[in-house]
Amino acid sequence: MWSINACAIPKDTTENINKLMSSLYERGQFNGSILVAVNEKIIYTNGFGESNFDTHAKFTPATLSCLASVSKQFTAMTITMLAEQNKIKYDDPVSKYIPELSKYTDGITIRHLLTHTSGIPDVGDLGIDHPGLTNDEVLKTLVKQNSLAFKPGAKYEYSNTGYILLSIVVERITGKPFKDYLTEKILSPLKMNNTFLYDGSQQLSNNIAMGYSQFNQKDGYTGLTTGDGGMFSNVYDLLKWSEALYSEELVKQSTLDTAFTPAKVIEGKTTYGFGWNITGTGTDKVVWHTGSTGGYRAFIERRLRDRITIIMLTNKGNSRRMEINDAIVNILNDKPYSLPKLPISEKMYNTIKERGINFALNMYDSLKAANDTTYDFAESELNTLGYQLVSENKLNDAIAIFKLNTTSYPKSSNAFDSLGDAYFAIHDKDDAIKSYQMAIDLDKNNFESIRKLNNLKKIK
Predict the structure, then answer these.
(1) Out of 76-80, 235-239, 282-286, 300-304, which region has the weakest mean confidence (pLDDT)?
(2) In the Cβ-directed half-sphere of 359, how many Cα atoms lie within 13 Å?
(3) Which entry of 78, 153, 189, 406 is 20 to 30 Å from 373 by CA?
């Protein structure tokens, strides 16, 4: 096995990575750009497919795409920079900077927001997620809240809301729009000239990748919140970001060590630090994050000991970034790898269009009974398919798919919540109530189902 730290990368290593990526593109499992670097040297970069299915523009490594939640590491960096300047402390109460939330955020610190341990529900659970959502709307909604999902610090639960609040904190400390501070302190110094935060103050240009669902429907970026997402970049700029984190160009190494340390929680476990997931310890730490919004998917992983950086940006939903990353790491270590499983949702979708819902349901049962390892039968597959059918107003087909999901995953609160949505869409109030109630019985903290159920009961 060759040394990853060696300057000379075997030619067949690059060829094997290209063979993997080309195969994934041909299988319909990768449409976007990828970059692999070792010791600051790019050993592989390429683009596959189209950035716009209408204009047929190619997706290249220079193509800008949405980072979604990969943006959170930049938000966390602005907080750590302010902390180094003694303008904020991680254990300061959030109410110190957002006093209008003093009643709701009692006991919640900046550290809780950074590590998703605040107990503040995610935007979706607040019932306000919609195209064009702004920070002000989120703040006004939180002012009216009176309960948290759990006691601050008790456990980890991902919350975009928390990172929106962090961007508000930055604005109040600096007196500048979050976008301006981010650009001034991070993007400009690192010469990330092709990276920006979209906040609605500018139009998205035509050379930016358009997002698409896995069923090839347009599914672009529609948010206006900051802190939780909304950044656009390309793989070259993200490599500049990654390399800066091996130095003290932005913050001290001790600050990075703090950021790359998972939070402590009372219940369960967490791998989340300040804007990054962390696995491993000491010099063997691996820090990574995924991003997902609309049809956009993003990924960055940094293996600190060997200075390996793997970056992926795609614009067609359901790209298997974690599995692709694992395969590339295996190639770098001269180990065998497996191709990601194919999505059963896409096969069923095409089957429904060609042969009808009953044939698709029977096919699913047959493949699953035969333990066919070619396809991914995860709960999310049927859930995604069901909502696609809802969007096409094929509501009876959607109900059949959601029912299949509740049968396949009878302990999933989310599966029953989705079934409730489909019943609600056909105005079947009684079955919608039953489904939402089942979702709540399975998860008492399913705030979305609780909200929907309460609203339904108000309807006469």
Answers:
(1) 282-286
(2) 9
(3) 406
